[in-house]
């Protein structure tokens, strides 16, 4: 199977691309050979200004189209563009440009405006009364006024006028397809050595020879360390091709997740598991899947690995509090092939310090199934929802069981990230809650204990202490509402919940972005005042401006790399 995906070139060492097919933005089309329809659309729809981010947007869209069997939905298009930041044009024309590739019902744009009982127009985006549609209509009727609002009829990829685009789509080169992967030993500048073992046995041997060597998977952390923090590693061992670290298995007691599994792969796997298993078993899977949605952008999730995130032991890791709260275990292997298991909650020892000796590596994560009436929830608050690191995050789990006719808390785990050098367990709070029937009478005492468990000193790194402290309480309050609501729904509890608070437990969903721009155009001559495609847009669509790659990898783990 050939896999095609976007990655960031700035975080992809050349050594790591051996055996892959790299497609760059120039590769898919340029002025001489003709532009690719994706490139063409972006210029036509005024989707580029300075052009710095343009190749990234083009390649993200291209990768999505090439890896989708069916036309993507608008949501998929927006998701695939996350991780590309534009500071000039704004996202409206970019998204509008690509909307034509979507399988969508265009009613939001074409249907007559929605109205409320008073005949007031309703904004299709917010669902609230607004005047934007009226303005659009006015603009449309005035001959002296041009509006950028166009009705985009859905059309398939092939219906786009590719103009002079004459090339067939790039294929995975047959010579790479026939080629067998070999273990690699590459020598670079300044005595750098790059190893790529193909078996666990070879990896353990290399580890025994070079206990100080840096293990690398996605390089999304190590790449930042070497580029921006002056870290230097002489010997690097890439573990991307060691099959034993890529396990993804459903087992009797839970999931077995290899440490080299990429986060995008994990997302896909969890979705399948959730679809196939009972919901009571997959509460942890759901929580991890929901957290992954807000973990960086597509290009990072395509490379960043489960083990890379765990072993980086970042205080703001989005997943580590969840591994701890869900009761996950980590399997660790040493150079003599001895495997030991440790609980995730005991693994993080200090600031970026984990329970791994020089002769050990992380092999896999064992994530247990949840039991009936066991609930897991993830939390993350950042400055902005997408592509940002957490101010505070958390993982919480609660198991409710029946004892002498009462449904009480039999087991609870509350873990916060972003509040200390390591994820912190609210131990006193957990102890207090066990054996209790959860109701709002417990909340005051619980909040007081949480403040003791998760103290944030006035000068705590990260600042915003009062806000972050209040987040620790509000996350628990949301969790209380969530568990209570679930138990009420099952008819096992009858705890009165204030309706005004219930929005706190609704999952956040955002409709696809739509926007309109109305402006007056006072034509002067043939060009001034007209919304014309600027000349440099054509160059920007196909120039190397931003580092982004798309890789094609072949068998076992093959990619297609897009590079712009
Ligand atoms: N650059 C970004 O925009 C961005 C965004 C989100 C996340 N991240 C980072 O991505 C990381 C995810 O992983 P990655 O695959 O890119 O990491 P990586 O390849 O950069 O490795 C990260 C660290 O984990 C160690 N490591 C990896 N696998 C190991 C194993 N099996 N046993 C022992 N040590 C191991 C490495 O030696 C290294 O110290 C997260 O930690 C996070 O910090 C980066
Ligand atoms: O767990 C993480 N989540 C993130 O969003 C992130 N960004 C950088 N490093 C990160 N780690």
Q: What's this, in brief?
A:
This is xanthine dehydrogenase. With 564 residues, the protein is of the alpha+beta class. It contains 19 helices and 21 strands.
Which of globular, elongated, flat, extended, rod-shaped describes the shape? globular
Give the integer mean of the pLDDT values: 86
Rg, nearest Å: 26 Å
Q: Low-confidence runs (pLDDT<50, min 5 residues)?
A: 105-111, 132-149, 554-559
By DSSP (H or I, 4+ residues per run), the number of helices equals 19
Strand order of the largest sheet: 9-10-15-11-12
Distance between the termini: 24 Å
Which range does the strand content fall in?
15-25%
Can you describe this structure?
It is an enzyme of class 1 (oxidoreductase). Pfam families: CO_deh_flav_C (PF03450), FAD_binding_5 (PF00941), Fer2_2 (PF01799). It catalyses: hypoxanthine + NAD(+) + H2O = xanthine + NADH + H(+); xanthine + NAD(+) + H2O = urate + NADH + H(+). Keywords: FAD, Flavoprotein, NAD. The protein is α+β, with helices and mostly antiparallel strands and 564 residues long. The protein has helices spanning 25-28, 37-44, 54-67, 74-81, 91-99, 107-110, 132-141, 174-178, 200-209, 222-228, 263-276, 283-293, 298-301, 306-312, 320-325, 427-433, 443-453, 465-489, 535-542, and strands spanning 3-7, 21-24, 114-115, 121-122, 184-187, 193-196, 214-216, 235-238, 248-250, 254-258, 329-334, 339-343, 348-350, 353-354, 360-368, 374-382, 390-403, 406-417, 424-425, 549-554, 557-563. The strands form six sheets. A five-stranded antiparallel sheet has the order 9-10-15-11-12, covered by helices on one side. Helix 2 (37-44) packs across helix 5 (91-99), helix 11 (263-276) runs antiparallel to helix 12 (283-293) and helix 16 runs antiparallel to helix 17.
């Amino acid at each position: 199977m050939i896999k095609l995906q976007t990655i960031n070139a700035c975080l992809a060492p050349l050594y790591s691309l051996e055996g892959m097919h790299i497609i760059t933005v120039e590769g898919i089309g340029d002025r001489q050979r003709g532009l690719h329809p994706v490139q063409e659309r972006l210029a036509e729809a005024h989707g580029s200004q300075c052009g710095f981010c343009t190749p990234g947007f083009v390649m993200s869209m291209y990768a999505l189209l090439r890896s989708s069997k069916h036309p993507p939905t608008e949501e998929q298009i927006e998701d695939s563009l996350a991780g590309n930041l534009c500071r000039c044009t704004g996202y409206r024309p970019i998204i509008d440009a690509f909307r034509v590739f979507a399988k969508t019902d265009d009613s939001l744009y074409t249907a007559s405006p929605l109205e409320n009982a008073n005949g007031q127009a309703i904004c299709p985006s917010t669902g609230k009364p607004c005047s934007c549609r009226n303005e659009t209509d006015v603009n449309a009727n005035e001959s002296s006024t041009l509006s950028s609002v166009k009705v985009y009829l859905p059309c398939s990829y092939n219906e786009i006028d590719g103009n002079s685009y004459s090339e067939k789509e790039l294929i995975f080169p047959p010579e790479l397809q026939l080629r067998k992967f070999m273990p690699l030993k590459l020598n670079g500048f300044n005595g750098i050595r790059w190893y790529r073992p193909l078996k666990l046995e070879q990896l353990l041997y290399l580890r025994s020879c070079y206990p100080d060597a840096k293990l690398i998977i996605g390089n999304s952390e190590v790449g930042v360390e070497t580029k921006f923090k002056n870290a230097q590693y002489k010997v690097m061992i890439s573990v991307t091709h060691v099959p034993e670290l890529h396990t993804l298995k459903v087992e009797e007691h839970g999931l077995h997740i290899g440490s080299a599994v990429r986060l995008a792969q994990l997302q896909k796997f969890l979705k399948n598991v959730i679809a196939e298993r009972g919901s009571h078993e997959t509460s942890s899977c759901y929580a991890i899947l929901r957290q992954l949605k807000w973990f960086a952008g597509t290009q990072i999730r395509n490379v960043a690995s489960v083990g890379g995130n765990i072993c980086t032991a970042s205080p703001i890791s989005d997943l580590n509090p969840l591994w701890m709260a869900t009761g996950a275990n980590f399997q660790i292997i040493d150079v003599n092939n001895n495997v030991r298991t440790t609980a995730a909650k005991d693994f993080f020892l200090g600031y970026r310090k984990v329970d791994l000796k020089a002769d050990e590596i992380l092999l896999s994560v064992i994530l247990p199934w949840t039991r009936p009436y066991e609930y897991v929830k993830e939390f993350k608050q950042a400055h902005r929802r997408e592509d940002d690191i957490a101010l505070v995050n958390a993982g919480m789990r609660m198991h409710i069981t029946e004892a002498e006719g009462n449904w009480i808390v039999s087991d609870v785990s509350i873990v916060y990230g972003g509040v200390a050098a390591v994820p912190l367990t609210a131990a006193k709070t957990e102890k207090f809650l066990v054996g209790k029937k959860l109701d709002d009478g417990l909340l005051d005492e619980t909040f007081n204990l949480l403040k003791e468990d998760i103290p944030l000193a006035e000068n705590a790194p990260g600042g915003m202490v009062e806000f972050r402290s209040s987040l620790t309480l509000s996350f628990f309050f949301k969790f209380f509402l969530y568990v209570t609501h679930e138990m009420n729904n099952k008819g096992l509890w009858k705890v009165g919940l204030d309706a005004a608070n219930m929005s706190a437990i609704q999952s956040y969903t955002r409709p696809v972005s739509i926007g309109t721009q109305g402006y007056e155009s006072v034509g002067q001559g043939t060009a001034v005042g007209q919304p014309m495609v600027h000349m440099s847009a054509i160059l920007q669509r196909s120039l190397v401006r931003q580092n982004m790659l798309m890789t094609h990898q072949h068998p076992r783990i093959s990619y297609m790399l897009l590079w712009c």
